[in-house]
């Protein structure tokens, strides 16, 4: 104990120097946007390589379970396709109608396949890192999905890696609708369970039932209409009593997320560009009016 005290006393100036250096770096990168973004980008490139290696090992160890989930998902999709084929054939008597409709739906889409190399679940603002970036065509605000449904939105883009804001992030805000019922709201996650989120602002006159599927509404410039989100499990009144709050069991298993796809949809990209142009135009008009006053 005496030797430890003597050692600390002898090198206390060095310990103080290191402590002050760490504190100054934390303050520099935490409260300065430019330095923080430079640090985040540089650290993400280095950490991405390490995460990529560990992700490949984890992916190999969980390959059996992943294959089982894909098999079950494929069976479910086959059943849905068969049901839709029967209904469409009854109405049109054209067996090629469904095939034509699927081609029309998928034609605008380009899916960029990616691997998850880092994924957090225990924070209020979780992030996912994927191994595709601007070099592969990924851009900010693109939607990200997996075989089971919605994952999140691209937030930061590097050359070879990108950071995604998943549904399991307090800042995530995705416009969703109840399938076949035309009622929509906004999906939020409030922490806690990683398989549950809440659909807010559903109107009081909405008619639905437990177990109804929830999909993306197509009203945003990120996701097309109809991407699966989950199922309705519980119904609550909103805090102000003017709308419903629905508890949604998410279809995506974020704890076992390995393979994702980034949606590069030409029509969505054009919609986003038009929205940005409209906002810039309104801003210029406002500036012109204020200057004239």
From TrEMBL:
- Membrane-spanning ranges: 14-31
Keywords of this entry? Cell shape, Coiled coil, Membrane, Transmembrane, Transmembrane helix
Coiled-coil parts of chain = 67-94
Q: Which InterPro entries match?
A: Cell/Rod_1, Cell/Rod_MreC_2, MreC, MreC_beta-barrel_core
Q: What is this protein called?
A: Cell shape-determining protein MreC
* Family named by the database record: Belongs to the MreC family.
Q: Name one Pfam family in it.
A: MreC
Organism of derivation: Prevotella corporis
What are the recorded Gene Ontology BP terms?
A: regulation of cell shape
This protein's GO cellular component annotations are:
plasma membrane
Where does the Rod shape-determining protein MreC beta-barrel core domain start and stop, copy by copy?
Answer: 116-263
